[in-house]
Write a structure and sequence with these properties.
alpha/beta; Rossmann fold; seven-stranded mixed β-sheet; 9 helices; globular; binds zinc ion
């Protein structure tokens, strides 16, 4: 496909989900000139305010929005959309309303690839599971012109990817990753490790958990150096795992 037309739309639940799972991927494709957009369904206002607190609980949604904007800037995501749902209440969001909102954004951005959480939501967080389900639903609806004709021309996403249900260090330790279910794309993002670390640190209110997961562990460099995805329902190539999300497109 024409290089200039390539685009990726990330769809996640909270500010920081994108950086945890996809920061290196975003850096790599931004450097290649791929258009990157992000949908974040909530402002993560039920989360922690930091230790010591960066702000009050009332200020948290605005602060986390600012943190997300800064992280997105670092990793090259040029376009942000908020859905304005409440943190920890995404499972109760009206299905038709979310579908319409996501279909509208998908038809506007017209992404080649959409990336969201796997159906288990990475860590079984109900908001993560909900956004995975809503995204799969919306990708299908966006391609069908009978849904929401007022929300733009139908658009078929060429590849829907889920974040891998495996931990990155588990994947790194595999002798034969091609035989592992759920490991379809393995991206070496070691070149962008510093940028990923900087984007993680931009989520200041979430530093405690970020430190535990990424920085205060013995294999920190390994964790920061790879990002892994599972292909959803599109035809599965015999060549998987790929090192490039756009392979064979
Ligand atoms: Zn999250």
């Amino acid at each position: 496909m024409n290089e200039d037309e390539r685009s990726i739309l990330f769809i996640f639940a909270h500010p920081d989900d994108e950086t945890f799972t996809c920061a290196g991927t975003a850096c790599r494709y931004a450097a290649e000139g791929v258009r990157l957009a992000l949908v974040t369904a909530t402002r993560g206002e039920a989360g922690k305010c930091g230790q010591p607190p960066v702000c009050s609980q009332e200020e948290l949604p605005a602060v986390r929005e600012g943190e997300l904007r800064r992280a997105a800037e670092i990793i090259g995501i040029g376009e942000l959309h908020f859905l304005d749902y409440k943190d920890k209440e995404l499972t109760a969001a009206p299905v038709e309303e979310v579908r319409r909102a996501l279909v509208r954004i998908i038809r506007e951005v017209r992404p080649t690839i959409v990336i969201t959480f796997d159906p288990e939501g990475l860590n079984l967080h109900p908001d993560h599971i909900a956004i995975s389900r809503f995204t799969s639903d919306a990708v299908a609806a966006a391609a069908d012109a009978r849904w929401f004709p007022e929300a733009g021309d139908a658009h078929e996403v060429e590849r829907l990817l889920w974040t891998t249900p495996k931990r990155f260090d588990e994947v790194a330790a595999l002798d034969n990753p091609d035989r592992e279910a759920g490991v379809d794309y393995i991206l070496d993002v070691s070149y962008w490790r510093q940028a990923k670390a900087e984007a993680l640190r931009a989520h200041r209110t979430q530093q405690e958990s970020i430190n535990k997961i990424f920085f205060e562990i013995p294999n920190s460099e390994v964790i920061l150096s790879m990002e892994v995805y599972r292909q959803a329902w599109n035809p599965r190539s015999k060549q998987l795992p790929f090192g490039d999300l756009f392979a064979e497109l």
